[in-house]
Amino acid sequence: MSTSPAKRGPYAKSAEKRAAIAKAAYEVVMEMGHVQLTTAAVAARAGMLERTMLYHFPTRDHLLVAAIEYFEGFIDGDGQEGERPLAPPSEFRDLIDQLAQRSPGEDKRLRLQVALASAAQDPTHPAHEFFQRHYERVMAEMIDLMKARQAAGLAHPDRDPVRMARQFVAVWDGLQQSWLIRRDFDLTEEITEAFREISGQNALEARAAVQDLLSRI
């Protein structure tokens, strides 16, 4: 006896529509930039009526947040919520290259992120909740990185890994904003040097160099 396929419930259909809208919003941002995004353009890209789209994302700001959520993996192609972790790097430089490569070639996406991060300071803005989750994830990853480098003797053992992670994330955000305004420096080199200073790697290497010099005298 044949069985008919299970019907999808209303929640699954709604989640898929939200995912399609988020994907469309992201594509519009990547093509036109977030400043040029309109609700009509996103609805057309998603292949649905504008009023249907606005039922799921009631304002333009909600669409911009959906676009960045789609990029970060908080909304996937099936409408499932989650997150996209950074690929585990074999070396610290691999991580910096990985982070930096997500920026220079994606100016429109990065400008959206910087703009929303500023707007997220308002707890009533749609981006506020997203950036709370975003920074929790980034902080957790950076704290683990700092601890791992301390254990490997590559970061100062007396420095608080939480404080180092917080300072690094703040410097990284600031350098991204500066780079968008005036690109007169190498973003990867600057963030690498900032990490070395914050983690105490420069001090450890200087101490090792002095000890090596003294051993030769």
Report on the architecture of this protein.
The chain is mostly helical and 217 residues long. The protein is 69% helix and 0% strand. It folds into two domains: 10-72, Orthogonal Bundle (Arc Repressor Mutant, subunit A); 92-216, Tetracycline Repressor, domain 2. The chain has ten helices and no strands. The chain is elongated and about 75 Å long. The chain starts with 9 loop residues before the first helix and ends with a helix.
Helical fraction equals 55-70%
> Which structural class do you get from the secondary structure elements?
mainly alpha
Roughly what is the average pLDDT, rounded to an integer? Answer: 83
Spans of 5+ residues with little confidence (pLDDT < 50)? none
CATH topology of the largest domain: Tetracycline Repressor, domain 2
DSSP strand (E) fraction?
under 5%
> Regarding CATH, which class of the largest domain?
Mainly Alpha
Number of domains: 2
Could you say which overall geometry the principal axes of the C-alpha atoms support? elongated
**Total E-strand runs:** 0
Q: Tell me about the biggest sheet?
A: none
Along the chain, the helix and strand elements come as HHHHHHHHHH
What's the total helix number?
Answer: 10
**CATH architecture title of the largest domain:** Orthogonal Bundle
Rg of Cα set: 22 Å
What is the CA–CA distance across the termini?
90 Å
